[in-house]
Amino acid sequence: MVGQISYTEDQIIFVLEQVLADKKRDIVLYEYQKKFGKSLSASQLRYIKNKYGHDPEFG
Question: How far apart are CA 2 and CA 13, in angstroms?
């Protein structure tokens, strides 16, 4: 699919763990950049939270 961004399981789990730990958005974005070597925008963060936050596969 054109323009579709896919995330690895590690990236998804990292974001969800950070959110569950009540980390501030800017901290999550910074830590994501440090860990994975690529930036994540606020809208991408929101997308991951909304898409995978209630998915039983990701807890």
Answer: 24
